[in-house]
Amino acid sequence: MSWYNNNNESSFQDATQIQLGGSGGGGSSSTTIIQNGDDITTGNTGYDTTVNDLISLRFDDPNFNVYVTNKNANGKIYFRTSENNNKVKIENGRLYVWYDYNPAISLTITSGWTHIADYIVGNRQGQLNNAAGISALGVTVAAVELDILNQVKPSILTAQTAIINHEGRIKYLEGRTNLDEVDDRYTSDAIQDGIRDSLDDLGNSFADQLMNKTSWEGLKYILKNKYGVFVLVGLTATFGGYLSAGFAFAETIIDLFSEKKAEDDISLLVNTLKTLENNPDNTTQDKLFKTGLSIVSSTNTGGLTDGVYNVETGNAELEITVSSGIASITDVLKNGEGFAVNDTIQINKSDIGGTTGTLDITVTTVYSYLEIVEIELNNQLQVKSLINNRNRRRQFIPDKNDFGDGLNITETNVTEPSGEITKSLDISLKLNPAQFNYDTNGNLQLINYNSVIYTNVNGSVGINNNTP
């Protein structure tokens, strides 16, 4: 290899003798080696390799290009950083990059060399395949839409028509007004909204099978207000005056609504009882109920304005009714928690129509959630029993307690399949056993009737006065 050429050229450059050869390289479409350490076809290899063997500047008419060459057999070209990280290489004329495993990008692609050209072409082909798949899917969707339009939609319209017809038949067959709708006419918007919100809360608790404080208070609100206004006004003089005030069936209609309310309340309470099974505090006795409260008489001496007052005390809420200036506890609207026997609750008399002083209430009994539900269930069952008894009397059906003198009522216990004990009644006449008895067939007989009654020879019947 020579350091300097003898050609007289003025465009001489030197790093390790870089020279522009020929006459300036203009015009022809040829490649001219500007600098190379050795022969352009062989070059030095192995330990004899120099920088000039690896990097050369060539004139590829009309451009000057830099060539990086490794003539060693199976030799590769790496691009290296100061940290000795070989992340890019050329092998067999192909460009590769090194990929370090990154689960944030892919969980399945591991570390390794990636051939750039193959990767780019593969991605491009995948895009073409996806485009073709999307086009085919579009055709399928269009076919499904056409099938829905031609087949499914007419069937839906037919079903909707049938549903409308069925609804009409149902309304006709029912032939009566929905009790809930009638009740809502006599209930304020605020109460209706409260009932709907409370029903939503209860429904969520029933679905979750876990009672919370909000849904429990909602239950109390429903028990207090549902149908309450309608029954309280006594049908507002029998439906707003459309019927006479002496309408004979007014009380029967009130009982109808009261019974419906009791049935709805029983359903709610049974669901509540089941939901409370999952509450860890369902047996904790720290809650208020009306039967466990007693007003201290020395603080209830009159001077209060008559009315109904809702009074909050701690986390509980009481309904206080004042009549003739004297207060009484008519309901516990919120049972609260954390109370104990002998606690004293003080209500400012200014909150219940008074001026100064307090109305003192002693807690005599505290209850658990389960106990309160059981009491409420018993109350509603009692309401139904009273209504059933009134309906029975309206239909002239007697009860065992209706029988007066002259009859014996004997009750016999009967064990039902469920284990419940019911009563079987045996009704008989009250008799003087010295004068009457029953024969083996159950027929009532007069004792010594042959001696008591006789027939004369002329056929007339007489009574022997000497027979006791």
Strand content: 15-25%
Q: What share of residues is helical?
A: 25-40%
Structural class: alpha+beta
Count of helices? 10
List low-confidence stretches.
Answer: 1-29, 31-40, 174-186, 229-246
Q: Numbering strands along the chain, what is their spatial order in the largest sheet? A: 6-7-8-9
Q: Report the span from N to C terminus.
A: 169 Å
Tally of strands: 21
Let me know the largest β-sheet: 4 strands, antiparallel
Quick check: average pLDDT?
Answer: 75
Q: Roughly how many Å is the radius of gyration?
A: 52 Å
User: What count of structural domains?
Assistant: 4
Shape: elongated
Summarize the structure.
The protein is an alpha+beta fold.
Please tell me about this protein's structure.
Helix content is 37%, strand content 23%. The protein has ten helices and 21 strands. Helix 4 (189-208) packs across helix 5, helix 4 (189-208) runs parallel beside helix 8 (250-276) and helix 8 (250-276) runs antiparallel to helix 9. The N and C termini lie far apart (169 Å). The protein has helices at residues 51-54, 116-174, 179-185, 189-208, 213-225, 228-232, 234-240, 250-276, 369-394, 449-452, and strands spanning 12-13, 18-19, 31-33, 55-60, 63-68, 77-80, 86-91, 94-99, 112-115, 293-295, 307-313, 316-323, 326-334, 344-348, 358-363, 407-415, 421-429, 436-438, 444-446, 453-455, 461-463. The protein is α+β, with helices and mostly antiparallel strands and 468 residues long. The model is unreliable at 1-29, 31-40, 174-186 and 229-246 (pLDDT under 50). It folds into four domains: 12-116, no CATH class; 181-276; 290-367, no CATH class; 403-455, no CATH class. The strands form eight sheets. A four-stranded antiparallel β-sheet has the order 6-7-8-9. Strands 3-4-5 form a three-stranded antiparallel β-sheet. The chain is elongated, with a radius of gyration of 52 Å.
